[in-house]
């Protein structure tokens, strides 16, 4: 079983951070919680966004909260894209309520990627690229690795 970063809320809605299964498996309470949350956890990847022209990008981190990586027929990173891309306009502003996050939930349509499981990205680190992008098709998931 490989290590994953998972974030799950307990019944009383307190966050419970499980960094890797091997460590959790050594603690009976942790393991029980892991199994209970398996159906409802969100896998969180550490995301670095190099798409400086995206309205959600702040200091190479995303303010959106979650993203969708497209590319259902992708065989390499060039066949993927960040479908959540939104071009920054000259008159656009960044809301003070939006904060960049290092970790983010990533839905993924790249079925041939080794990190994709049930349309969720399970990579620990993800790099999104697209220097000068004006459209989501000019972005890519540089972490894509064919299964």
What attributes does this structure have?
about 150 residues, mainly beta, eight-stranded mixed sheet, two-stranded antiparallel ribbon, 12 strands, about 30% strand, flat, disordered N terminus
Give structural notes.
With 147 residues, the protein is mostly beta strands. Helices cover 10% and strands 30% of the residues. It has helices spanning 21-25, 28-37; strands at 6-9, 15-18, 42-49, 57-58, 61-62, 66-70, 81-82, 103-108, 116-117, 120-121, 125-129, 140-141. Strands 1, 2, 3, 6, 7, 8, 11 and 12 form an 8-stranded mixed β-sheet that branches. A two-stranded antiparallel ribbon has the order 4-5. Strands 9-10 form a two-stranded antiparallel sheet. The longest helix has 10 residues, at 28-37. It is flat and about 55 Å long. The model is unreliable at 1-19 (pLDDT under 50).
A few lines on this structure:
Helices cover 10% and strands 30% of the residues.
Write the layout of secondary structure elements.
Layout: E1 6-9, E2 15-18, H1 21-25, H2 28-37, E3 42-49, E4 57-58, E5 61-62, E6 66-70, E7 81-82, E8 103-108, E9 116-117, E10 120-121, E11 125-129, E12 140-141
Please state the CA-atom Rg, rounded to the nearest Å. 16 Å
Poorly predicted regions are 1-19
SSE pattern = EEHHEEEEEEEEEE
Total of helices: 2
